[in-house]
Specification:
Largest sheet: 6 strands, mixed
Strand order of the largest sheet: 9-14-13-12-10-11
Number of helices: 23
Strand content: 15-25%
Shape: globular
CATH topology of one domain: Rossmann fold
Structural class: alpha/beta
Length: 795
Amino acid sequence: MKLELKDAIRLVTGRGMWHTDSCGGKLPSLHLSDGPHGLRKQEEKVRQNNNSKAATCFPTASAVACSFDPALVAEMAQAIAREAWNEDISVLLGPGVNHKRSPLCGRNFEYFSEDPFLSGALGEAYVKAVQKEGIAVSLKHFAGNNQETHRQTANSQIDERALREIYLLAFEHIVKKAKPATVMASYNRLNGKYACENRRLLTEILREEWGFDGVIISDWGACADLPGSLWAGMDLEMPDSRGHHRKKLVRALKKREISQEMILQAAGRIQKLAERYAVPYRKKKEKWDISGHHDLARKIACQSAVLLKNDGVLPLKKGEKLKIAVIGELAEKMRFQGGGSSHINTMPVRSAAEILKEYNENISYAAGYDSRTEKELPELEKEAEELAKDSDLVLFFGGLTDRTEGEGYDRKTLEMPENQKKLLEKLYRVNKNIVFVSFGGAPYRIACADRMRAILHMYLAGEAAGEACVQLLYGEENPCGKLAETFPLSVDDTPCRNTFATGSDDVEYRESIFTGYRYYDCYRIPVCYPFGFGLSYTAFAYSDLKLEKDLFTGEEMKVSFTITNTGNRKGAETAQIYVKNPTGCHYLRAEKELKGFIKTELLPGESKQVSVSLDEGSFSVYDEKMQKFLMPSGEYQILVAASSQDVRLSASLAVKGVSYERDDRELVFEYFDPAVRIQEISHKQFLRLYGRETSHFDRAEPGSYTMYHSLRQLSERSGMSRGFLKLAEKAVGILFPGKPADDPEVMMMLEGIRDGTIDCVSCQSGGVLPYRLAEAIVLSANGKKGRAVCKLLFG
């Protein structure tokens, strides 16, 4: 069908919250749905995130990344796609492959890793598996969306090398290798331009350089300037803006600020997507296996859990007459997923406290704390202390609660909740035999870690977390997860400590490429647990490293070695291949970088020879002046490791590439000064690295306010804004009756209202904030009180 211009104008904006327009029945509508770790099909009129169709909740990305297993990720993605098919979903909004810049990001549970190579490999597997089932994906959030604080107004200022080598690398890999049907443009600004309006990002890099030919979708409410976004390369605004942006598009067309061809081109891409993925074109409809998917969720949770410590107390023995105290509300009210737009309405979930009683009749439970607060509750603590005193072993269930991390808000600290910390201290005084079973979507400082006999970190392990946890504790499954991110000792050690979520909209990524283990290992910063770390109930030895070539010139090369299970249990080991860069180079470069990994399952005493391939990209750096990746010549080291800090084998490799004589020591001398911590890099030094003027979006003055500003920002100058904000905050309380202000859904809603652009708040308010009132608020902030009143009265 050839689209007419009037149809194209309808098609480039969504219909309602979750559908594309059908152009009056001329084209089938696409149904989009959240779903990084499970399907969240929500009906149009439902506003609360938690009221969606029941579906399988798989482990979150932060958990499944620790499996280091693309095939396992593909199994999960295939299962989610089949559930999506059964619910007539056309586009699954995932995976999220944003880089974990800071462990404090509230949405880190939705993302894979602090390493872009690992994120890219797992994301590729996810995309291929979903689209093989006939469901389109939406690769997100593109790009530089690395904090929740002011996520709709912040400007991520990233130097070109860090942008290409860290923040875009996973996206580039997935676009080229897996060909996602859609990419989702993020809320934030990137280097001065909103992602939806960033032609450099969407057209020059994504389309022209990487060859992406699919649909670019806005994140929900991220598009405030539809004509400008279409010009930049975006195709589809989601959700419906209640017609306001469509009217602006028609006006822009009449003024020749945008061409018909651009609108038709964007609509044509959406039409092509609909003709491939919309429900009427499907040949069959399959039912999904509820019990099978639940068991898959259990399997993934077992393969992803990380054993951080064990002095031999684990595994426990089923039927053993130990008197065990199970303490911690998270054993009964398990936290197995994050909050926000990825929250899955699951089937009934069995708790670890319930299942443990099937393994030992001498198990007793005490809550010890209330996970809805950080206040100490003496009655609960006393009950837990008495139980611990009278037991042979304590299984303490604790970690981050949904009050401490979630979409829409960032964490303030690396510490676990205060009531849990205090309780652990009291329990240790009466019983030294404590095993910590840990939950959370991101790293945190585990209290009393040095005094725990064992620590099993489950992350957010999905709906089968209870079964998986117990099977791991009792040795029916052998832990084999490896950390996909570093657990730092202190928030002060994190490389972006002074520039992450400070409350400013001008976010400088001063640490550049030195993020995650690239920073900790290069600068010799002690950590709790390094990237790639994870124990097992067995042990492994590495031997016989062989490189296929003595001189590498760019063709693919195999690295082979032998892994042996030296213990008495079956287990799986993930070997990691790092490339250690040449010493003595005078440009910024991490000491070593992950460039390969392989997971191998072995019986007791069994050995296997395995191999991993390296290619030109394994040795390349991005040169911002030449605008391309280059492979510098030099003497590299190939490291085979059990973690980033546990190298088992190494070999030298000569690389013949380009002579790269770059010297940055004078330009950015602070980065080379061992006396300067990366957190202390000055604005002046970053400016030289950044190579352009930094932004000043925090400095709005009367006359400069627009529909891009938030109610929080507008309230500095507008009484109308302050008044509406107070009313909106009260309305949220009515929408969520009985829920406190620190409830995750309430916090997400409040942060969205306060810090979302006023355009987004108005368009998604269901008419509560009429568009002309929003425009009047902006006029009042700009000191144009009379025009504001006229706008309010006459539109």
